[in-house]
Amino acid sequence: MKKTALTLSISLLCFTPIITQAENTTSQTVINQQPQVAGYYQHQVGNTQITTLLDGTNFMSPTLFKDIPTEQVQEILKKYHVDQAKGVQTSVNAFLVNTGNKLVLVDSGTADCFGAHLGSVMKNLKASGYQPEQVNTILLTHLHPDHSCGVSKNGVANYPNATIYVSENEADYWLNPKQLQKIPKDQQAKYTGTVPKIKAALAPYQTKKQFKTFKLGDTIDGFEVISTQGHTPGHFSYKLKTSDEDVIFIGDIVHSHTVQFDRPETAIDYDIDPKAAVQTRLKQFADYAKHGQTIAAPHLPFPGIGHIYSADEKSYQWIPVHFKD
Ligand SMILES: [Zn+2]
Q1: Does 10 have pLDDT greater than 70?
Q2: Domain count of the chain?
């Protein structure tokens, strides 16, 4: 037996080099790689099912982090093995919450406001087993187009039976024509470029009186509102009590699970009031690290659900949920 094996391996060694390049290519089977499938993720907290709906992934420049030396950003990104070939990857997630008797969508993705690499919330909502007609309520953390555009398409409501809620301050900032004069000159172009996208998305709901505002102290379908302004003037997070842990839908109080967890005092260029955004993050992170609420975040890696941990109450770690079937 030994002899046969030896003879075979020698003959293979002898034969391999004389196969020509052409023969070699034609005889090789190419196994095609398959596309990624992750598009929705079901997560159960007590009696509540949260479905993360992926809108897509985007890339941002590491220079968008403010008041931190470039070398320090690079050091942190390297520590977390962040692939920077196309920039720093960030997810865009929306959350569909089944409370048992209400279906609530928190944020809605970009639809076609940012190009074809994003805009998959609707496709993923249908794939997850739910239907857009079932959605009763849409809670927007703020009106930036990556959160608000997804509510409609070409002037038609994507969720015909849903009422949209946003804070009074946020609606006033983006929808009141008197705001423009209060905005610093160097930020006006960005503002006037953004407003039409927001208005177009909300219009079908306003026409049907399915657009409402709230203020601090209000509760909507069991969701308590938490003022987390800074990223935008009327930015709010939402807290839902379940039969298990509280869940906080934090919105854009954080954009990076690396730099802004390691150095939470780091603002990002997207913040309208960077100082207030940092104060909000410091306050909320301290609370979440202390009390262990479940966190759902639109711009943390898909599915954007997990917990926040701190060993020293200065820097933080993102602890993502583990896959459960
Ligand atoms: Zn955002």
Answers
A1: no
A2: 1
